[in-house]
């Protein structure tokens, strides 16, 4: 499977800022690229979902909208991943692996496992150039499949007061999302996610919007790459909760 290399927000924003600066002084051959990026970042948002990216080759579609009372855009993703439910579950539960695939994470660890389906995680995100890095405590709750619910539902909410602040890191007040994993025929999984991220502190809206626009797509591309790795495909390690393939109904 062909995949795109991971691009951090720091590198992406540096490239954009450099292109805009050169465009201002008439030196950039890629002025049209800079103008296109700027138009997308400044695109007026409404409360209705607007298509941001439609990658038919990788089966990824991303959307954005601006909800009343929120500082930044919300996001939505619809994507198909070629993997068994067991393989994807092992990747998602390998919390120390997040720096290898989750958007601009340089540190991740499990703080507490409340039960087989409830976790508290700690993540540190690299911030765009010139801004302090961010940290976030995530409360993740899994709703396993049932006889009437064929998908696994993952609910994630930020818990900014769970532990003391860690200066100079800025605590994120929101990295909230609901993710639904629905097994499909031929060992494929439909991923549907909606969420909202507030990085906290002082952040230019265009910088946050760039991350909101780019991160969901980049995460899925990296998931598609990671689920091909032998450490997840061939693992026989037991899972903390059962998962079922398409057509395998769990016991009522």
TrEMBL record:
PROSITE patterns: START. InterPro entries: START-like_dom_sf, START_lipid-bd_dom. It comes from the Bacteria. Coiled coil: none annotated. Residues 34-232 form the START domain. GO terms for molecular function: lipid binding. This is START domain-containing protein. It comes from Fluviicoccus keumensis. The lineage of its organism: Bacteria, Pseudomonadati, Pseudomonadota, Gammaproteobacteria, Moraxellales.
């Amino acid at each position: 499977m062909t995949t795109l290399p991971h691009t951090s927000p720091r590198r992406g924003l540096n490239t954009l800022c450099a292109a805009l600066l050169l465009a201002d002084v008439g030196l950039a051959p890629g002025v049209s690229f800079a103008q296109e990026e700027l138009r997308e970042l400044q695109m007026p948002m409404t409360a209705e979902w607007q298509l941001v990216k439609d990658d038919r080759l990788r089966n990824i579609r991303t959307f954005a909208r601006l909800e009343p009372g929120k500082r930044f855009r919300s996001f939505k993703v619809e994507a198909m991943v070629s993997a068994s439910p067991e393989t994807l579950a092992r990747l998602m539960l390998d919390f120390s692996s997040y720096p290898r695939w989750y958007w601009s994470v340089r540190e991740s660890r499990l703080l507490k496992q409340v039960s087989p389906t409830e976790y508290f995680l700690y993540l540190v995100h690299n911030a765009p150039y010139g801004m302090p890095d961010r940290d976030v405590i995530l409360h993740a709750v899994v709703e396993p499949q049932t006889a009437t619910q064929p998908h696994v539902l993952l609910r994630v909410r930020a818990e900014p007061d769970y532990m003391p602040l860690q200066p100079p890191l800025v605590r994120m007040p929101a990295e909230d999302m609901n993710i639904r994993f629905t097994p499909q025929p031929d060992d494929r999984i439909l991923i549907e996610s909606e969420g909202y991220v507030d990085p906290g502190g002082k952040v230019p809206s265009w910088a946050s919007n760039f991350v909101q626009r780019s991160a969901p797509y980049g995460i899925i591309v990296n998931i598609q790459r990671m689920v091909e790795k032998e450490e997840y495909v061939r693992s026989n390690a037991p899972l903390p909760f059962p998962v079922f393939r398409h057509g395998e109904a769990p016991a009522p």
